[in-house]
Amino acid sequence: MSTGTDRLNRLLVMVPYFLANPGVNAAKAAVDLGTTPKQVLEDLQQLWMCGLPGYTPGDLIDLAFTPDSVEDGVAVTFSAGIDRPLKLTGSEAAPLLVALRSLIDASGVVDPAAARRAIAKIENAMGSRLGEAVTETPADLSQSSDSEAVTAVREAVRDHRAVRLRYYSATRDVVGERVVDPIRIQAIQSHGYLEGWCRDSEGIRLFRFDRIEAATVLDEPSTPPPSTGGSALALFESDSALPEAVVEIDQDVVWVLDYYLIEPLDPDNLAGSQGPVVATMRYGSADWLIRFLLGFGGKIRVRNEELSREVRSRAAATLTMYGADSLSTA
Q1: Residues 6 or more apart from 233 whose CB is under 8 A from it?
Q2: How many angstroms separate the CA atoms of 111 and 71, rounded?
Q3: Most buried among 210, 234, 316, 317, by the most CB within 10 A?
Q4: If you average pLDDT over residues 307-314, what whole number do you get?
């Protein structure tokens, strides 16, 4: 399953790709672009309707391909200018530079040397310094500040390989090993995360880069279940416009802080704590949050009377449906 971001990235590179590889078919393109032949054909159909404002035949991208064949060649007959070098204005370049520097600060998300080179190229192309100047020498630009573990994780994601992690759980104060099928790398609240399918837990988990003590790329492909393709555990946390809830988490399920983007109000007072951990989390809808809370059987509670009442109501309805009331009185 392809996310909107994944598809947009592919669409942006497809025209240059087919221009550089005239006559290549959808089957070969799928291998090079990291997707399926069916998806390539669907993307070509989408591209066929894209172009410059005006959207007359002379403005739209034009392609020659067979919609129902993955073996026939593909040719770009009109690129609508997408193959021309991008020219940035000052107002466009400034936020781009800020974003690149933010990615460097989120350790491990990108190759910092590559990001610094991109910053230098953008600033040089603009002919003036926009914001903080890049002063690294060529030697500095070739160096990476990432740990060996983070470098290995990025390699695993790039090459679609499984990875063995030695990971520190801050909430449980233990270090353990697990094999993970990487899905993607994310930058969330100035931290880099690996999102992947944890084979031990049999679920999607987030692994913060600064808690990965060691990583070994395995000689086997990354094979997360197909249903995880569109997963984005960070979606609710990444949008500050979404509602936020305060929750209480019992100690025996405090591990949830390691795997979901739930922020404790007092992160320095987790180890050895006896009572529930109070934390905040964002949610996309009340229905989603209620289902999430029900899944923990009362071990995570929300400090919101209306939501709490709905959780209790649904829990009681579920117990009634399964005959729990009659069993308890028998």
Answers
A1: 195, 204, 206, 259, 260, 261
A2: 36
A3: 234
A4: 89
- Residue partners of 63: CB distance under 8 A and separation at least 6: 18, 44, 47, 48, 74, 75, 76, 77
| Neighbour order of strands in the sheet with 203-208 | 203-208, 191-198, 174-188, 161-169, 212-221
Q: Which residue has the tokens 């530079």?
A: 97
Q: How confident is the model at residue 272 (pLDDT cuts 50, 70, 90)?
A: low
pLDDT in tens, 195-234: 888 888 787 787 888 888 889 999 898 888 876 554 545 4
Selected from 1.10.10, 2.60.40, 2.30.30, 1.10.443, the CATH number assigned to the domain covering 148-228 reads 2.30.30
How many C-beta atoms lie closer than 10 Å to residue 18's C-beta? 23
Fold of 235-324: Alpha-Beta Plaits (3.30.70)
- In this predicted structure, the answer to whether residue 132 has a pLDDT above a threshold of 60 is no
